[in-house]
Amino acid sequence: MNLYLFLIVVICSLIIIIAFYYFRPKKKLPTESIYTKALNAIIQGDKKIALKHLRDVVKQDTNHIDAYLQIGNILREDGNIEAAVKIHRSLTMRPNLPKETLSQIHKSLALDYYKLDNLNRAKEEAGIIIKSNKKNLWANEFLLKIHEAQNDWKEAAQLSKIVQKIKASKDPDQLSRFLVFQSMDKLKNNHSEDAISLLKKAIKTSPKFNLPYLKLGDLYAEINNFEDAIKNWEKFVDLSPDNTEDVLSKIESAYFDIGQFDEVEKFYNRILDNNPSNLIALVNLANLLQQKGEHNSSMSLVDEALVDNDHSIFIHLMKLKLSLKDSDNQNLSKNIDKIFDLLKDSKEQ
Q1: Which domain holds residue 89?
Q2: Do residues 89 and 79 lie in contact, with contact meaning Cβ atoms separated by under 8 Å?
Q3: What pLDDT, in 10s, does the model give residues 226-235?
Q4: Does any domain span residue 144?
Q5: How many CA atoms lie within 13 A of 90 on its CB side?
Q6: pTM exceeds 0.90
Q7: pLDDT for res 348
């Protein structure tokens, strides 16, 4: 009988131990451990798993601001922007948040509104960050991007200066470009003098940036100041030797407009002295010489160019054009065949 009772006690004890082992409350992982798993999932691009871990974090700790921030960011990236705004906006109501945490919240809201194409609200959120820290690089670069998108060139220029100062770097070309855009806006409103002033300022800001010279030349031409137009266009050509086709024809026309016919040839020779590979200038000069009746000089110029540019369809076409005057059919046929061969080669490449 005692043995029987002993066995019953042992069996009951085993049942209790097994039940306790299997049905005891599972120990929860620390929230930071779960949050780390969430961040790893984000890095690996597994947003679904990341959201699961993040939601587990906020269930355990409703004060885990970073987890809420990440949840909202993932929702924004997945297109559920309104939900992201709701989460991020609610975080701004939390009391006694550190300054850096508040900046992160407003950054997320700025990105939310930007994704919604609500640029004014996005600017407001970035502005809140800057009020807290004027040297916040992200907020200033973000505002610069928005003002560029809104064609607000004056504000963009100011922000560009601020960003460059924060970075301790210089990009005068960017500042000059914004001044050019400002000048174009002035020109649209028929404020020519203001436009000229801004373009001169753009040149002073970045003397080696080509765009202001082109625009200033165009503006001077519009008011029939061809001499100043030529000066600026020629400077543009010096700075942009590979982007001159339209400008060269403008300069040639301007010289003719002011009656300085001999200057055109001198101009093209200056271009070729500085940049012998400018084939557009070379062809234009050949055309000019041909028009002046200097056929042999024109042909010599093209023949010399072909020595180093036998691959150029452009030069071969000019050779063909000049050959029409004094070549027999056999030579003309060879030139045409050469052009066809070059065209085939260019298609194969």
Answers
A1: 63-168
A2: no
A3: 999 999 999 9
A4: yes
A5: 12
A6: no
A7: 40
